[in-house]
Amino acid sequence: MSKPEIIVTDPLMPSVLDGLSEVFSTNLLWQASDPAKFLDNLAPAVRAIASGHATPIDKTLMDRLPRLEIISNFGVGYDNIDATYAASRKIVVTNTPDVLTEEVADTAIGLMIMTARELSAAERWLRAGNWQQSYPLTRGSLQNRTLGIYGLGRIGQAIARRASAMNMKINYHNRNPVSGSALNYCSSLEELAKESDILMCVAPGGPATHHTVNTRILQALGRDGIFINVGRGSVVDETALVSALQNNTIMAAGLDVFEKEPHVPDALLTMDHVVLLPHVASASVDTRNAMGQLQIDNLSQWFSGGSPITPVHETPWPPK
Ligand code: NAP
Ligand code: 8YV
Question: What DSSP element (H or E) covers 229?
Fold first, then answer.
């Protein structure tokens, strides 16, 4: 029997591409010299997409593929995919939750400590040969501070567990309170920012959260406040964030995600009170391998007649 035809939209890890090729006939969109012709040629046969986070999987792309059944994404965030439209076409969308939760939470805590205690700036100071003069004491500290988590989902809760062990007080904001959670719920993001010393964004991207962290929220966080983002760059109005850092509206920021990756605004690159990471929160060999395996398994299981393992909530399986 011939292997099912799938399109791979983004340059996934070589081990994932190898794993996919064992089961599927893989067609690599990002290598196509003429993407329109590539899609036209494959349209009658393609039944699945394996995606990364770079290429938008929108109505236009899905409508070119009449036999599309499933989109398997590498990553828990799937704001690159119009899952609501996929649902209307009865196309299943899967992501890679849980296998990365603890790794991302570790990185988020690391980034928070680096930012509050200026660890990258202190290391730059040492490497520049300045240790003869003491590094200035940091205004930032995590002691007796309140952490505000924007997005208390799987990763947010794993961050909260770690922060509780660090004796931090914890507030959170979601659209809905988490049932059974003893943490303090704030019904608005502005209230969360006002009530917290450190605002940690772990919210997904997409229209509902776009630029919700804006000038008003940063003003509410205040001049002693620290902003950390491991969620999505699109959640933050980056221009407003740069101004807030330039004008000392907030104290500092630690960012793993940006609005237009891999672009990082020049102004941020020259600031000493920001810590900048290149979207590495899940980027260990073990965790990325586990994500890749789950991406492959979702497709393999679908094509062997089983259920997708981790469908997103817009495309539940079995369908409601
Ligand atoms: P999750 O379990 O679905 O949690 C998402 C949380 O955000 C939920 O608590 C949800 O609560 C809340 N939320 C969603 N939309 C909201 C809105 N409009 N307003 C307020 N709260 C909202 O997802 P997860 O596994 O924790 O992952 C969270 C996100 O982290 C991913 O979507 C991804 O963008 C990001 N991420 C980044 C990295 C990285 O490398 N930096 C790695 C992994 C994940 P309600 O539904 O009640 O609102
Ligand atoms: C991924 C992420 O590494 O899972 C997510 O949502 O942002 C990261 O874990 C990234 O999407 C892969 O490029």
Answer: strand 226-229
